[in-house]
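Entry type: protein chain
Record version: 2
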Amino acid sequence: MTSGRSSVEFLEFLDWLGSKGLLPLNTAQARKAVANKVLEALDPSELHDVTALDIDQVMRRFTNKFGKRYTPESLRTYRSRFETSVSDFSAYCDNPVGFKIAGRTRPATQAGEQAERTSTPKTSPKKRPPPATTTTVEATGTTRVSPSNVIPIQVRENLTISVGPIPFDFTAAEAKRVANVILALATEA
């Protein structure tokens, strides 16, 4: 890693995060893709120090130039990823030896399970909620997704399931994988 703060070093830093395992590779690649797109809104003369950029102004310019290509939720996701990436890069530039990723580095489900295990006594039986008419399948992991991007699917008259949140970059291969999991859960009627 070089010690500069230019856009080139910034993008190298994002590659480095994935190659060193400091972030999951997909997360590092998603951050780099967003950074490349957002930085396109700026003039090359403005890219000598990424850490000095005004994120609000940069995102306003990105939205003005390219906003029609994206949904409002995608723009919020882009802002979040870009802001986190710049923050991590700035922290690394300020203290490479003591650098730590600012965001969460493990899936939320693991953290939630750990909290549940420590707060629930082993002797108390776990009560199951009554059957509901709505079921939610939630995405977990490091990809940031919008809680508002939940798809309700009416299965029968008294049963609607919700699938989501669906990431903005959801691929056909991922959709098939989810469909196969749901098919495996089905019982013969």
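Comment: The CA atoms of residues 17 and 23 lie 6 Å apart.
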